[in-house]
């Protein structure tokens, strides 16, 4: 076929051509629900990309907007008869866009300098934490690093309530990571979100794992690379993936565990980054076989010992997109929660509906994200739960913001935080 697009975009032609234009995706897409715009739904994305490849469309701003509007939540894929992999097609469309137009310098710096280097990232995040006390938007404009966040930065600043100045990696040397009776050796993959924004979650996870008999070794990993991937910067994502695969290979552990559902999902899918590199594809496959998400790992070790504290609690669970649809993990967190004495588990309507965080989507497209979040809060309110648990830092931050905005009394906790409170704290 005569075409003016890159071979990488041409490679998704058969996938986009699988779309039978039935329109079932309209009923489930959180973005279409708000915009009612055919360009924002899976059918529209696949048609745009098909026409681009066929040379009937050119990649202009009109096509860019819907491409970057997608949450990559995979809800359409789960409800599509031929299971068209729209989320991957959209990422290829974004990659094509940045190949032609380039990325803002701030993003190049983020993807190539900060995210691959945890020490540089820590320095930057520390400045961000001090700056938050002055107001993030002031700091952002001073540094010029966050300009890409979009026009609603002032409103978006409130999403993250506070930023710590000491991160998990700073605190880790003071933790006991060796159990009394070792039953398993794990490498703990430190996700950026928990390390830099919610270090108390990493602390809860590692301490609980040790309590359950795991020797925990903290890996010297960098960012998993997903932020670069979702923006379409596949080369930057590959560089981070290569680094992390080499680290995983050197880690002498039975499993690599992370409580970040998004990191776990991307680490398991590194193979897709190396379709043209058989050696790296094989190494990614081997590394993926050792990755476990938090509830996936804990579920394999049920039944758990008796908890130290028993307190009657009503608990519900929000499924992160990268856990339920990208990894198919749904029953595991529920089975864990249901086996804890005195927890009354209550299922939230549409528990797997995207919360609207989608990485930095809530900052870049604040108003749309809030409409999605409001729907989530309506569902949460119906449960009357005291605790809302989940397993992704973006979801934790977004849901906590939703609860504050809606004035609900529910507390948002990572499932490992809740479990540490129940299994380890003395009253
Ligand atoms: S549900 Fe699938 S096949 Fe049907 S229009 Fe949407 S993407 Fe195409
Ligand atoms: S991935 Fe999610 S936001 Fe994107 S088109 Fe599919 S359902 Fe809509």
Report on the architecture of this protein:
The chain has 427 residues and is of the alpha/beta class. Among the domains are: 7-101, Alpha-helical ferredoxin (Fumarate Reductase Iron-sulfur Protein, Chain B, domain 2, Orthogonal Bundle), CATH 1.10.1060.10; 313-423, Rossmann fold (3-Layer(aba) Sandwich), CATH 3.40.50. Helix content is 52%, strand content 8%. It contains 25 helices and 8 strands. It has helices at residues 7-10, 13-17, 30-35, 42-53, 61-69, 75-78, 86-101, 105-114, 118-134, 136-143, 153-156, 168-171, 192-197, 199-211, 226-231, 234-250, 261-268, 278-288, 294-299, 321-324, 331-338, 361-364, 366-383, 393-406, 415-423; strands spanning 184-188, 214-218, 255-258, 291-293, 313-317, 343-345, 387-390, 411-414. The strands form 2 sheets. It has a 4-stranded parallel beta sheet with strand order 2-1-3-4. The chain has a 4-stranded parallel beta sheet with strand order 6-5-7-8, sandwiched between helices. Strand 7 (387-390), helix 24 (393-406) and strand 8 form a beta-alpha-beta unit. Helix 4 (42-53) packs across helix 7. The N and C termini lie far apart (70 Å).
């Amino acid at each position: 076929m005569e075409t003016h697009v890159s071979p990488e975009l041409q490679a998704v032609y058969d996938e986009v051509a699988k779309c039978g234009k039935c329109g079932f995706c309209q009923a489930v897409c959180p973005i279409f629900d708000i915009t009612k715009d055919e360009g924002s739904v899976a059918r529209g994305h696949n048609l745009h990309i098909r026409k681009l490849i066929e040379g009937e469309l050119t990649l202009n701003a009109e096509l860019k907007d819907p491409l970057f509007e997608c949450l990559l939540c995979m809800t359409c894929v789960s409800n599509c008869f031929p299971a068209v992999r729209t989320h991957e097609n959209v990422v290829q469309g974004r990659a094509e866009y940045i190949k032609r137009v380039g990325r803002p310098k701030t993003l190049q710096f983020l993807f190539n300098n900060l995210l691959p280097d945890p020490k540089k990232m820590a320095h930057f995040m520390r400045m961000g934490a001090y700056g938050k006390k002055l107001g993030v938007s002031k700091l952002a404009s001073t540094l010029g690093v966050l300009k890409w966040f979009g026009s609603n930065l002032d409103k978006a600043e409130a999403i993250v309530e506070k930023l710590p100045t000491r991160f998990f990696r700073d605190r880790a040397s003071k933790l006991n990571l060796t159990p009394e009776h070792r039953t398993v050796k794990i490498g703990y993959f430190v996700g950026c979100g928990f390390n830099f924004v919610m270090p108390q979650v990493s602390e809860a996870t590692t301490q609980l794992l040790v309590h359950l008999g795991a020797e925990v070794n903290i890996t010297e990993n960098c960012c998993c690379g997903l932020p670069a991937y979702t923006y379409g910067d596949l080369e930057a994502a590959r560089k981070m993936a290569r680094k992390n695969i080499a680290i995983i290979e050197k880690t002498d552990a039975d499993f690599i565990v992370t409580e970040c559902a998004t990191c776990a999902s991307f680490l398991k899918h590194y193979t897709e980054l190396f379709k043209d590199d058989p050696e790296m594809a094989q190494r990614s496959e081997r590394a993926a076989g050792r990755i476990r998400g938090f509830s996936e790992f804990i579920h394999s070790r049920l039944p758990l010992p008796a908890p130290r504290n028993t307190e009657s609690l009503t608990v519900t669970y929000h499924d992160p997109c990268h856990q339920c649809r990208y990894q198919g993990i749904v029953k595991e967190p529920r089975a864990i929660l249901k086996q804890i004495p005195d927890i009354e588990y209550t299922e939230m309507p549409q528990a797997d509906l995207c919360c609207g965080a989608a990485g930095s989507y809530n900052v870049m497209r604040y108003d749309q994200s809030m409409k999605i979040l409001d729907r989530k809060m309506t569902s949460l309110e119906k449960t009357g739960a005291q605790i809302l648990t989940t397993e992704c830092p973006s979801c934790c931050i977004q849901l906590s913001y939703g609860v504050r905005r809606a004035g609900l009394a529910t507390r948002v906790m990572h499932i490992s935080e809740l479990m540490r409170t129940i299994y380890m704290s003395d009253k």
